[in-house]
Specification:
It is a single chain. This protein has 64 residues and is mostly helical. The protein has helices spanning 4-10, 17-29, 50-63, and strands spanning 2-3, 35-36. A two-stranded parallel ribbon has the order 1-2. The two termini are 18 Å apart. 23% of the residues are buried.
């Protein structure tokens, strides 16, 4: 299981929500089965529906 906090802490080069979405897609393709939202991303461009966006990105990544 991937935790969102681990992804954010492990990749300090990620500076925007858009970059986080790409990272989450990669986590979906790397064999992770679940993504736990244990923190809210604190990026300037984080949308209100951030959980839905990240869940979709994780699922999309897992399908590719």
């Amino acid at each position: 299981m991937a935790q969102l906090s681990d992804l954010i802490i492990g990749h300090p080069e990620v500076a925007s929500f858009k970059e986080l979405v790409e990272l989450v897609e990669h986590a979906g393709t790397s064999g992770q089965m679940f993504l736990e939202f244990d923190v809210k991303p604190d990026y300037r461009d984080t949308p209100r529906n951030w959980q839905w966006v990240l869940e979709a990105a994780f699922t999309r990544g897992a399908d590719t």
